Give the backbone structure.
Amino acid sequence: MNKAEKSNQRNYWVSSAYLFSLFGGYALVYSMYAIWLSQTVGLSGKQIGIIFSVNSIAAISLQPLLGFIQDKIHTKQYLLWINALFLLLTGPFFSFIYEPLFLSNFYLGIFVGAIYIALVFLAMAGVVETYLERLSRYSDFEYGKVRLWGSLGWASTALFGGVLINIGGETIFWIASATAFVPMFILLFVKIRPAVSKAGVSSSMPTLKDILLVLKLPKFYCLSLFVLGVATIYTVYDQQFPVFYASLFLDVKTGNEMYGYLNSLQIFLEAAGFLVAPAIVNRVGIKTGLLLAGLIMIVRMFCSAILNDEVLLSLVKLLHAVELPILMVSIFKYLNMHFDSKLSSTLYLIGFMFVMQLGAGAMAPIFGELYDSFSFQYVYLLMGIIATVCLILSVFLLEKDKALKN
């Protein structure tokens, strides 16, 4: 094994360990977030919808700036450090600031919490993923093989999410704080170094003019239609799915625990999905990969609308383990194929994460109120219909794959 190969292998294992530990913390913050808001804080579906909406607005306000900064600093780790430090503060924040603010001044609590949630997860997760995706291109390994370790980390801690949330209080968030020491240790003592730049990986820095030119391209808005009309609808559907799932059980605490176990199983399967997703996308094509992921999302929404059995809905939940790896691999490949690769972070955060959070910000309170007025399942049916229309339009509007040069 030569020096370059050793460097690439080192980058793979260090970045995998980092993502495993970081996503373990993310899971403790976010996997039971909706249940915490509903059962511990005692908020309604409409109120939770408003919270998710403002969280999304905070994320989209930060994502373009974060993406531009990360493209500028390239492989420097400043933003990764900020993310790890906010994760470290999760326990104190939820215990001494977030919940008390909800009880004393609901809208101030929403505002302060939205900024925090964006910096600990919603906006920063995309920064981490684009950082490691760029590293994978430098180091000659598939991003999906690193991302699977993130799923394994999430699954490892989500397994205990239902038990921890049933203990009460903010126990789960204090455990999240404790997990933050591991990614911080990796950043402090083990530097994630990129290998020598490879041909085909643009090393020049993006400019504001580059970004504005992208925003003028029709193909950017065609992609945004798919993200907004399919992926975003699905994200809003999934936000309060834990509340719906737990409500199916006679004892809601049993539902919480079962959801924690189910979520963990789904993400373990998702990790396996990231092993095979690159091969699937390479086989069927990038555009087809996006459409396939969209179809799986729609199937899950329609199934959730018509099924009432806990076992069948559990199986439907596991479809996420198939959809997400295909979507993530396809979206990065699509952006790198049809846009300038030096803008990969900015494009992912604007073209995918920004559009998704913008749409979720607008949709979450509307669907949250519909949940209260009608029922989860009637709203899921409506979501499925909207997403189906947008998926059909995407068949014609998304760019066809370019022929690869030999």
User: Anything to note?
Assistant: DSSP finds 20 helices and no strands in the chain. The domain at 9-189+206-397 is CATH 1.20.1250.20 (Growth Hormone; Chain: A;).
